[in-house]
Amino acid sequence: MIVKLGVPSKGRLMEKTFDWFGERGVMLSRTGSDREYAGKVEGVEGVNLVLLSAGEIPRELAAGRLHLGVTGTDLIREKLVQWDQRVEELAPLGFGHADLIIAVPNCWVDVDCLDDLDAAAAAFREAHGHRMRIATKYHRLVREYLRAGGVADYRLVDSQGATEGTVKNLTAEAIADITSTGETLRANHLKILSDGPILRSQATLFRSRTARRTQEEREVLEKLIDRLEV
Amino acid sequence: MSVLSPATRAEAARLLTFFEEAGALRVDCGILQPADILLDLYGEDIRARAYVTQDPSRGEQMLRPDFTVPVVQMHMSGGAEPARYTYAGEVFRRQEDHPERENEYLQVGYEVFDRADPEGADAEVFALFHTALAPLGLHAATGDIGILTAAVEGLDTSARRRAALMRHIWRPRRFRALLDRFAGRSPVPATRSALLRAKDALAGAGPIIGLRSRAEIEARIDALREDARTAPLSEAQVAALDAILAVRETCPFALEQLRDIAVDLPAISVALDKFARRIDALDKRGIDVDVLDFEASYGRTSMEYYDGFVFGFYADRRPDLPPVATGGRYDALTRRLGGGAEIPAVGGVIRPGQIETLGGLA
Fold first, then answer.
1. Which of B97, B161, B197, B209 to mutate to test the interface with A (most CBs of A within 10 A)?
2. What Gene3D superfamilies would the database entry show (chain A) (predicted)?
3. What is the number of helices (H) and of strands (E) in chain B?
4. Contact between chains at B48 and A115 (C-beta distance less than 8 A)
5. Is the domain A98-200 a CATH 3.40.190.10 member?
6. A66-108, pLDDT tens digit by residue?
7. What is the end-to-end Cα distance of chain A in Å, rounded?
8. Is B8 part of any domain?
């Protein structure tokens, strides 16, 4: 009956998303108390605002429980198998820029690119008896990238936060994480491999390819997309 | 997700009996396997291909992605010698890139642990599979990873370079990149040259953090310096290696071509003698070797624990299907899992589900 639009529920990502829609005449806002995840949409009829964690938006789009959703390309590609068959990229929103990169300690002067990382990993495994550990929460993207790059003798260890600290804390030898300015990396004595990022991500408006669409919902969706000029 | 049909199960039972009649002892192994051994063998890649689950007291467990590893473990911990084993059961594979493919299917296997006559054992396994699958009119592909490893071992270059190439035999792209670099075909990165010129490479590098020590970093810089002084691989040797990788012929012609290449790369001669003996052994077992295809690079991308003879059976009219059967020699695996012991081993698996898809053997 109603078109569901999913938007990150917190912080700058939510505010900037509200601004982006506002500039196009679709006013999104939170209702109720600061702590209540409820919102409203003005400017188009029949659209329901759903506030939820950016990390859950890919799953909800793929399951068809959201028609539209704003989240990072990094999360879509990490969380959805064959993402392009589940969702369609409607428009990059021009904020939330972040690169998924691999970083190693600054003191690894002998490691500059994937080729070096692979060679260092082989020697590391021989010296320490276990594979070189790379801390990340982007398991699929990083594994795929390293496989395509022919890197062996590494192991991914899960890190859901403060990933830059894992090297100093001896729970990983290198990290794969998103960064926008690189400041946290520098502060933790890490440097980015020169091969370029695994992925350049930004906040993006996605449409579900699986969501059920009645005639009425189709019309509302078309009107909204028209308004947004995407 | 997929339910195995009674017909597939019956097919598996028939194959099991067939292998038992060929002299194999029937064995079984647990569906849940400790993940650490498989992860150590295959690395992170296996996580994308197998189901891993967590047990708070036993650690990570894996739904068996194949039988070979547990069967080798079982044999190495006290199996009689020589031994022939057969088994049938489900294996589980994640299919991230091919969601349409089955993630649970039956495999029936036959494995031979025998020191006496490795090429004879290669031929025995291949001929058995050939007989079992004959009604389907499949196309057989064969190869020999041992020829390629012998070629790499015989390259006239530093031990480090040979080891680096050997490590990436199963990753063709990385192998090619290394080969180009060692042959002086690809430029040395600017950062590498700067590093090697630096008097104190670690000056200004900040604190040493993490488990990788200063000594390890310095050792790699020394290795890079040594490598920079190493003469490039000769064009003739690179050309010989390329020629080996390009061999794609029926067995007798493939052997002839490889013998020609061995003039420039005599290190492969011993491996070629084995190939010749295998052709004879196959011939003795009634295989028409004059029409049997041989591809020197076959098995390089998908069959990582095989290190000698490799084979697969395919339905030419259904190129969309995975192979009906695959197998090969895995001497090195018995060494890795043997705790000091080793034994030549060869074997293979058949997928009864594929047989059924192709109309059955009856």
1. B209
2. Periplasmic binding protein-like II
3. 15, 12
4. no
5. yes
6. 999 999 999 999 999 889 999 999 999 999 999 999 999 999 9
7. 23
8. no
Say if CB A87 and CB A209 are below 8 A apart.
Answer: yes
Place B1 in a pLDDT band, splitting at 50, 70 and 90. Answer: very low
Nearest to A5 by CA among A21, A23, A16: A21
At residue B339, does pLDDT exceed 90? no
**Contacts with A110 from chain B: Cβ below 8 Å:** 195, 201, 217, 220-221, 224
- From CA B20, how far away is CA A155, in angstroms rounded? 40
The H or E element containing residue A204 is strand A203-208
Q: What pLDDT, in 10s, does the model give residues A127-143?
A: 999 999 999 999 999 99
Report DSSP state, residue B212: S
Number of domains in chain B: 1
Residue B26 lies in a domain: no
Nearest to B220 among A110, A154, A189 (CB): A110
Residue B180 in contact with residue B186, Cβ under 8 Å? Answer: yes
Which candidate, B141, B150, B149, B106, places its Cα nearest to that of B269?
Answer: B150
Which residues 188-207 on chain B approach chain A with CB closer than 8 angstroms?
189, 191-192, 195, 198, 201-202, 205-207
What is the predicted pLDDT for the residue at B12? 96
What are the residue boundaries of the structural domains of chain A, listed by start?
3-96+202-228, 98-200
ipTM here: 0.85
Neighbours of B306 (CB within 10 A): 28
CATH architecture of the domain with range A3-96+202-228: 3-Layer(aba) Sandwich (3.40)
Domain hosting residue B225, numbered range: 158-233
